[in-house]
Each structure stands twice: as C-alpha cells, then as structure tokens.
Amino acid sequence: MSLLKDVIERLDSKEEDVRLSTIEDIVENNLVEAVPYLLKRLTREDSLIVKETIIFALKTLDCSGVYNQLFLLFRSPDAYLRNSAIDIFASSGDKAVKFLMSRYNDEDNKEVKKLILDTLYRIGTHNAILGIRLALRDQAINVKITAVEYLGRIRDYDSVPELLNIVRESTHPMLTSAVVDALINIDDKEALESILNILMPENNPDLIQSIYIPQILKILGKLGRINLIVAILDRLEDIELYAEEIINTIDELSNDLLEEILSYSKVKDILLDILRNDSIDEVIRYKAGEYFLRIADGTLADTLLDIGVSLLTASDSLKVIGIHMIGKSKHEEAKKVLLEMVEYLDDEVIKKECINVLNLLLRE
After folding, report:
1. Among 295, 319, 339, where does a domain finish?
2. Alpha-carbon distance 58 to 340, whole Å?
3. What is the per-residue pLDDT across 242-267, written as a single tens digit (0 to 9) for each?
4. Domain that holds residue 351
C-alpha cells in the first residue's frame, strides 16, 4: 500500500489518536499530495484538537494547489471554517495574494470580499496592502469601510490622498466617519488639517454636524488648536455623552497646551461635571479628577471638600482622587474628615495614601 493511500484511510479512522498521528506523519513527510484530503477532513471533523492540528498542517504545507477548494470555505455557514481559511491563506503570504485578488475582482458577494480583505490584512505585505487599497473603489459601502479601517490600522500613508477624496465626495456618514478615524490613526498633520476644512468649514464650530464632534475634538487635540477646542466645548449641551472624547482630547495635548486649556473656566466646569456624574465610566471620572487637581487652589476649598467627600463612597480609584481633593482643599474640616477615614478604611493601600495626605496637611 502506498503512503498516500495509507494516510487517506487513516484520516478516516474512528480513533482520534490515529487521525492525529496521521496528520503528524503527513507534515513530517511533507506529503503535499495529502493536502486535498486534509482539507476535506477539516470540513467534517468533529474533534477540535484534530481540526486545530489539520489547520497547523495546512499552514505548514504548500496549499497553493487547493486554493480553489480552500476559497470555498469563505462561503461556509460555519464561522470556524471561514476563519480557518483566512489563517491558511495568510500563512502562504504573497503567494496567496495574486489568487485572492483575482477572485476578488470576480466576486459579487460582499461578505466574501470582506473575508478576502481580512486575509490580505493578515498577510500584511506590500502587495497585500496594494490589494486592500483597490477595495477603496468598491461599490459596496461595507466593503469599502473594511478597506478603510485596515489601511488606518496599517497606517498606510500612501493611501491618504484617496482617503481624503472619499471624504470630499462621500454622502455616507458611516463611510466618512471610518475614513476620518483612519486618517487620525495615520496621523498625517496635513491630512488632519484638510479633514478639518471639510468637516468644519471656515473653522466655524456652528457648521459641524454633531456626528463628527468626537473626531473633530480628537483632531484638534492632535493639532493643539486650543481656541477651537474650547469653542466646541462651550457649545456642548450633553457633557455626559461626550465625556470620553473630552478627556481623550485633553490627553492629546502637550504639557504647555494642557496648562493653557485647563486655565479656561469652561473646562474647569466640564471637568467638575464629569467628576460629579456617577453615570460616567469611572476611568473617565478619574482622569477628570487628575486634571482638576492640577488647577485646584485655595479659592475652590468648599468645592474640593464637597466633591472629595462625595467620592469617599465611590470605587477605590475615585476614593483616592477624593482623598487628594480633600487634602488639596486645605479646608478647616479636611483634617477631621481624613482622620475619620483612616479609622474605618480597610484597604491598606488607600489607608496609606490617606495617611500621607493627612501628614502633609498636619505639617502645614
């Protein structure tokens, strides 16, 4: 009996161990002739460990002879098989790119096209990136958005002119938003300036469509445009809705610009609103508290004490911010509040932080 005939029979064994050892023999002997049978077995295998071993084998062996059969898995209703096809194609690198692009050009199914793009992204070579760029001209919006997202992740600078053209011509908000996110990730300053001119004509915040406010804030943070950031913040009615974007925008600023934006009373008020709102994620509230502490002084003693005390029943991270706000207030009640805190705190780390703040107050 030939080796190939033997492994074909053993692949159909009822014994899992036999199937596993057969796959190992195929890889060890570089038995490329067995690849079609491995692929066939994959589609009807029940054992997860055997399926994973088959995929490993197909990623190791030359599968170019079964690309057509492998491509059929992109149409499978089984997500595991679709993802397996991506893994196997991706392991072939540039060898698979030419085949995938030939199939892309003839493909009508937008979901299959997206799987091709998923694979090209995984391959990640120059030729694969060229293939992703071609999808920017696809008629299907969802396919085009997938290509845009991948080019943004890759930070493909060469696609910037075409991405900007899409924004200029697009009437589809989801597509425009995806392109803006991609350009923010690519982080080309000239491109970001161009996006601002498109989405905020004449640098007028009143002309912004609300859907793009979070992205415009992020761009302005990257460009350090303090006056425009403050102008937009001054027009926001729902601070809770934009809390994360506000904090992320402030995070983008250099130290000099950070001090400048924190000097605006409107920004101080917004930070306090975020800090007070227990519907906002605690990580965002914590960052707001950190920024507020940088600008807090004796003129805000009552405010600092009130908010600090209100945070003592919050999560541990916000509790620490509360302790520091009480200390920063230098209020006549601050020492008393912190002494009481030391008595009932169970968490040793927070208790130590409280004692440190209290000691600083006692030295003054």
Report:
1. 295
2. 66
3. 999 999 999 999 888 999 999 898 99
4. 302-364
